[in-house]
Amino acid sequence: MDFCSRCGMATERAIPPGDDRERDVCSACAQVHYANPKVVVGCLVEEDGALLLCRRAIEPAVGLWTPPAGYLELGESTADGAARETREEAGAEVEVGPPHTLLDVPHIGQCYALFHARLAQGARVSPGVESQEARFFALSDLPFGEIAFPVLHFALELYAADALSGIQRMHTGVVRGRAPLRAAERFDPRHYELARHRAFELTH
């Protein structure tokens, strides 16, 4: 049983007027409690043809690699959140460019927004407490077998394909797990698919 954050009374599942699905609604004050997806933001930081990745020091997926990324905070724009996550995880100030990937992950209630970025003038990389290390990888050395989350695996595949083609694109799509997933398959991209993928060439 859940309780209302406004008055403390129990909530019940009901369809509020004008809505199209069940929500948690307070049985006393009728406050509607919405559960909405979380937004993950991050940067694809590029330097001399190499990409910045961080090795995670925290669960889940400790020891695996990811672009600097994390949850968007209230009061932030997506680009500001991506820059903050890069400071926190890689210790680097960046200049955020255009979006590269906007990928939805409905089965876990998340959406990802990853931006092209470059190190700010004079900036250096120094991993934060959430990262074991942070370093640049050449395109041919990206550790695809050690990427933390399937959605980021797909994003890096798209990034690598764009880099090889020399065409900068923005990508959208939906990442779906091939059910039923066992616990050992949770971070294995072979058990997921990128559906409804669309690519839009960016103009300068």
Report what the structure shows.
With 204 residues, the chain is mainly beta. The chain folds into two domains: 1-35, Ubiquitin Ligase Nedd4, Chain: W (Single Sheet), CATH 2.20.70; 38-201, Nucleoside Triphosphate Pyrophosphohydrolase, CATH 3.90.79. The chain has helices spanning 78-90, 150-165, and strands at residues 11-14, 23-26, 32-33, 38-47, 50-56, 65-66, 69-71, 94-105, 110-119, 131-138, 169-177, 192-201. The relative contact order is 0.16.
The name of the CATH superfamily of the largest domain reads Nucleoside Triphosphate Pyrophosphohydrolase
- Please tell me the total number of domains: 2
Extract low-pLDDT stretches.
none
Please report the number of helical segments. Answer: 2
Structural shape: globular
Main sheet summary: 9 strands, mixed
Average pLDDT, all residues? 93
- Class of the largest domain in CATH? Alpha Beta
Q: Which architecture of the largest domain per CATH?
A: Alpha-Beta Complex
Estimated share of beta-strand residues = 35-45%
- Any idea of the CATH topology of the largest domain? Nucleoside Triphosphate Pyrophosphohydrolase
Overall structural class, as computed from helix and strand content, comes to: mainly beta
Kindly state the number of beta strands: 12
Percent of residues in helical segments?
10-25%
Q: Distance between termini?
A: 53 Å
Q: Mind telling me the C-alpha Rg?
A: 19 Å
Q: What's the SSE pattern?
A: EEEEEEEHEEEHEE
Provide key terms for this protein.
nine-stranded mixed β-sheet, three-stranded antiparallel β-sheet, 2 helices, Ubiquitin Ligase Nedd4, Chain: W, Nucleoside Triphosphate Pyrophosphohydrolase, mainly beta, single chain, 204 residues
